[in-house]
Amino acid sequence: MTQRRKIAVLGCTGSIGSQALEVAALHQDRFQITALTAYSSKEKLFDAVRRFRPEMAGLVMPIPMEEIPEDLRFCQWVFGKECLTLAAQSDCDDVLVSVVGMVGLESVLTALQNGKRVLLANKEALVTGGHLVMNAAAKLGENSLLPVDSEHSAIFQCLQGAQGNPVEKLLLTCSGGPFRTWEKDAIRAATKAQALKHPNWVMGQKITIDSATLFNKALEIMEAKWLFHVEQDKIQVVVHPQSVIHSGVQFADGAVLAQLGTPDMKLPILYAMSYPDRLPTGGQELDLFALAGLTFERPDPERFPSLRMTKECLNAGGAACCVLNAANEEAVAALLRDDTMTLGTLYDVVEDTLQKAGSLPADTLEDILHADALAREIARERLFRR
Are 96 and 273 in contact (CB under 8 A)? Predict the structure, then answer.
């Protein structure tokens, strides 16, 4: 009988975290949820604690202990940002990091440094501190860091068939978002309401905006560089509107291995949780006979300057990727608050921040946190002047 893996879920009330709990409930003989954290959705967290009865629970946004229902005081409660790092070093085998933003970096490093396998659904950890994370993962051993994003999971799955053969190119697919066919000026004039209408995926607001601007794909290029030890010229973004092929790998002989499936995040989540095993997700299976067709397009860095900025940041090195990420986070937050702001302003804020921040080091965690703070200050000033 396979021993149950103990899992801490950071960000359990978000899209990835809540789906992880669904598949954990489907396979209770394989998984035990031992720690749960949320940002501020206390009622959803309360429901999850009742259902899974973890040893620890935490809220990043503190509340008085009196607000914790009596029937939930059986576990240890922690409030504030420290709940993330405490959960990451708690009594568990795996830590699913599905929080949004820079807070994920310290959580990932803490988990790896404490011997935990990390199931990574936080882009910022690799985007801002890829070398620190990969060094920590290398010390822990092979497969100590498993991707949860559908694209990186697909590439990871395809690489299982590489058998040591060199990779010619990673094919990173992209739906194209709601503005795939729009002209440049129309994209720049697009609003929050338009950006939040993703054609294929149901996700949180921040990642939905990033999918519309293709900053999501920009960050994934940065992640792929670190996860799979390749240079950016070996990463090809492919616009694939149907979101059936989740990504692939091209080899030296021209052969392409690709991973296909329905647009359902439960598959990559459960694959990371159960690796190297494959377990049923309970979701809909892909029906090849029902597909009308699969199409592919080249991405346009003129209409989507996030792709151009990514290339420039990777070439610049240092903390450039960290600055891009921080500026984008601030700009997206402003867009979500302000119904009058457009995507053109979002792009301009990120580009202006990159230019003003200049060249910054990223050798240590302190360097990265400094670059992140400086970039946010510059971006906020730019947004204020707007």
Answer: yes
Q: Do domains 5-147 and 153-385 have the same CATH topology?
A: no
| CATH code for residues 5-147 | 3.40.50.720
Q: Which residue has the tokens 């409930």?
A: 25
Going by their DSSP bridges, the two strands 245-251 and 167-174 should be labelled as antiparallel
Q: Where are the beta strands (DSSP E) in the chain?
A: 5-10, 31-38, 56-59, 76-79, 94-97, 117-120, 145-147, 167-174, 235-239, 245-251, 256-260
Ordered by start, the domain boundaries in the chain are 5-147, 153-385
Q: From the centroid of its chain, how far is CA 264?
A: 15
pTM of this prediction?
Answer: 0.93
pLDDT in tens, 296-348: 999 999 999 999 999 999 999 999 999 999 999 999 999 999 999 999 999 99
Q: Tokens 């080091």 — which residue? A: 361
281-289: long-range contacts, CB 8 A cutoff, minimum separation 24: 281/23, 281/26, 282/22, 282/23, 282/26, 286/244, 286/260, 286/261, 286/262
Whole-angstrom CA distances from 200 to 77, 122, 179, 247 are 37, 20, 13, 16
Give the separation between CA 86 and CA 240, rounded to whole angstroms. 40
Rg (CA), the chain: 20
Helix ranges (H only) for 53-98 are: 82-88
Q: What angle do CA 347, 349, 352 make, to 5 degrees?
A: 105
Q: How far is CA 376 from the centre of its chain?
A: 20
**214-246 pLDDT, tens digit each:** 999 999 999 999 999 999 999 999 999 999 999
